[in-house]
Amino acid sequence: MSDETGTDTSTETSIDTDTAPAGGVRNFLDVDDLSREELHDVLTRATELKERQQRGKLHPLLEGQSLGMIFEKPSTRTRVSFETGMTQLGGHAVFLGPDDIHLGHGEPVKDTARALSRYVDLVMARTFDHSDVEELASYAEVPVINGLTDDAHPCQTLADLLTIRERFEEFDASVAWVGDGNNVCQSFVLGAAMTDIDLTVATPDGYEVTDEVLDRAAELGEAPETTTDPEAAVADSDVVYTDVWISMGQEERRATKLEDFDGFQITPELLGDRYLMHCLPAHRGEEVTDAALESENAIVWDQAENRLHAQKGLMTFLSGA
Ligand code: CP
Ligand code: NVA
Q1: Does the pTM exceed 0.85?
Q2: Cα 283 to middle of ligand 1, angstroms
Q3: CATH architecture of 31-153+307-319
Q4: Which residues contact 223 (CB under 8 A, 6 or more apart)?
């Protein structure tokens, strides 16, 4: 079927995959809530949905379904990719900003979870405390997706893995993380362990990935090598990945952190001919120079785009579509 512009407007409402979510309502609070097989399934769905979209094929796999999106912090990519992703899947997303709902101030998190479950089919939440998404998940009767907490950013990792797999078959890549060992890094550590990516993490003293996350990575595959030396970390790498030094909610620590991260900036010299990844938003002149970010080595816009496809794969997986 095609419209007057010749675009193929026929619909595809099923997806070829090996696994359906097992065990009732499934949440995605961090990457290792999926098994290795399920992670590959989500990424395969993402690739298939990306191709369908690029071919102009409609793919209303979640027709009539709604996603509630709770945001305690600002967002560009997460908000827009989830909202447009739901629209492309034939569903609908409801934005719930910090001043829109009672979460955490007018009513307990568990009450919000139970009420929302009576309206929506999926919940995505961006909170400060990781314990808040855990509480949402334990009281919600629908899947809860972590859209970033102070500890984890698993949706970012899905997009990162998709971006790496598009360039390195079978994830055969060596990645150097240079920067803060907090949320984005911690989820990436788990994702790298689950896909056998060779990862080295360089952080300043005091900003390491937690031992708890390193232990989980070791159980999933291999824990990354760790160092405080950015140059040593990037030496044998194909990809350099960084994130802001001042995360949302850390503005009061700005002066101290700028001092602590001295020497960790990604410059064209440190980058060399390696790919540059960044979850964005970027603070040019802090963790990365404008020249590095604007160079041909940067694949950050592909990462940003892949948030859309990866999350569509995730939502269809969690919904059993
Ligand atoms: N990378 C990421 O989560 O970006 P936003 O804060 O814009 O959602
Ligand atoms: N570490 C950053 C990631 C933003 C997507 C933050 O928490 O603000």
Answers
A1: yes
A2: 13
A3: 3-Layer(aba) Sandwich (3.40)
A4: 189, 193, 214, 215, 217
pLDDT band at 1 (very low <50, low <70, confident <90, very high): very low
Annotation says 243 is catalytic: yes
Ligand 2 in contact with 247 (CB < 6 A)?
A: yes
Looking from the CA of residue 150, the nearest atom of ligand 2 is 7
- pLDDT of res. 29: 98
Is 53 a known active-site residue?
A: no
Among the options 126, 165, 274, 278, which is catalytic? 126
Contacts of 282 (CB under 8 A, 6+ apart): 244, 288, 293, 300
Record: fold of 155-303: Rossmann fold (3.40.50)
How confident is the model at residue 15, as a pLDDT? 76
Residues 21-49, mean pLDDT to the nearest whole number: 94
Share of the chain above pLDDT 70, in %: 94
160, two tokens: 């990162």
Output the pLDDT for position 74.
Answer: 95
Surface-to-core class of residue 62, CB atoms within 10 Å of its CB (0-12 exposed, 13-18 middle, 19+ buried) = buried
Looking from the CA of residue 279, the nearest atom of ligand 1 is 1
Domain extent listing, the chain: 31-153+307-319, 155-303
* Torsion, Cα of 164, 168, 173, 176 (10° steps): -40
SS3 264: coil
- 31-153+307-319 and 155-303 agree in CATH topology: yes
- The answer to whether residue 6 scores a pLDDT higher than 60 is no
Q: Identify which of 71, 77, 155 to mutate to test ligand 1's pocket (most ligand atoms within 8 A of the CB).
A: 77
